[in-house]
Amino acid sequence: MRAEPSASSRAIWLLLAAFYFCVVLSNRSNAAETEFTDWTPRELALIQSLSLSQLRPPPPSPSNRYADNPSAASLGRAIFNDARFSANGKVSCATCHRQDYGFTDDLPRGLGIGVANRRTMPIVAMAYQKWFFWDGRADSLWSQTLGPLENPVEHGIDRHQVQQLVSLHYAEPYRQVFKGDPTSQPVNQVFANTGKALAAHVRTLMPQTTRFDYYADTLPGQTNGTDILTKSEKPGLRLFVGQAKCVNCHNGPMLTNGEFHHSGTPANGEPDPGRGAAFDALEATEFWFFGKWSDADPDVNSDHIRFLDRDTHKYAGTFKTPSLRSVADRPPYMHNGTFTSLAQVLNNYRTVSGSPLADEIFHGGLSDRDLIDLEAFLGTLSSNSNQIHN
Ligand code: HEC
Ligand code: HEC
Q1: pTM score
Q2: The pLDDT of residue 219
């Protein structure tokens, strides 16, 4: 899933070009369409800021010096797909993070050795994130990857077993990357290095160009005739960047600010404290940004969390804003998988708007038609939506 041109992506671009010409021709005779090509300069700037083409090269990962090492990534990729790293020999990272399902799964809660307490998150463009998990209890990708291995309901093994498995099956690639022997290094060092290899692989998982990106990139300003979005998708986009204020949180090319918010998602079982309970977990481990196995220089890279806002009261019940890339393809939704459709997500936003548990949500004024248009727009953020559906 690297973002390299391939035969299939060339085919998609050809398809898009053909599609583009069809729409241009049909729009010439469609006067009603012109109203949605009149984007204001502010709308235009916002729309273009959401395009995948605006994604900068991934920032470095100072706590993982192997983050961009291709040999580390190929070792990480093998372990990512290796079900021997589990208590029953059947669970790998790829069991829950399925490539064919936007790197998540179709379940309300992830299913490994047992049932996880939250929904599996999609894991594309992770290099751009600062905090990991729904509650942000990990501050680096490599330390995040160690969590599922030792989680009794996910992989259900421990770091000693990780060391044995690496020694048995990956000793040679490990030696090449980390210049040490996995059998003789301290167990926590082998564990941390395994996380760094996994992170190097996960960093390579990138989203694909969608119909929305194509639209944003070909928008030439106020001119008519480049609309490749439908009559419902365009007003949906206008709501998204305007009146509905979705871009307050779902912004940038990944459509997430990576931060934590109250979104008024109803509990589905035990109430979940979210970010409010994450700070202690972060520092309770030696596998974090300032911990023993980090490659970061605390004097140089300290901005990372030194200015962390630790107001646990404010953060109680908040969750990380998820990316909306390919969102229509991967129900169910929210940290607890409580909604089975986008219509339910949007309807809940409207219902909870302004309530104490959703104090940053202002969607009360949206009509039924608006919700339909917003949902139509969300569909354009999937690469398999690259055909017309008026
Ligand atoms: C049993 C299913 C399951 C397995 C197996 C699993 N994950 Fe996850 N993954 C989840 C769930 C559930 C979450 C969210 C957990 C939470 O917030 O507490 C998650 C979150 C993540 C995240 C955070 C994404 C973000 O935006 O913050 C990453 C990265 C990730 N997993 C990578 C991995 C890797 C690497 C492995 C293998 C070592 C793995 N996962 C194994 C279910 C799973
Ligand atoms: C105040 C910040 C904020 C605003 C404004 C906001 N969202 Fe969200 N959005 C979130 C958070 C946080 C979640 C995850 C909530 C959870 O897991 O309980 C979320 C989840 C979602 C999801 C589910 C994604 C998934 O993978 O589960 C969709 C779809 C969505 N938002 C669309 C929208 C749309 C459309 C708008 C505008 C009408 C909007 N959001 C406005 C923060 C926001």
Answers
A1: 0.91
A2: 81
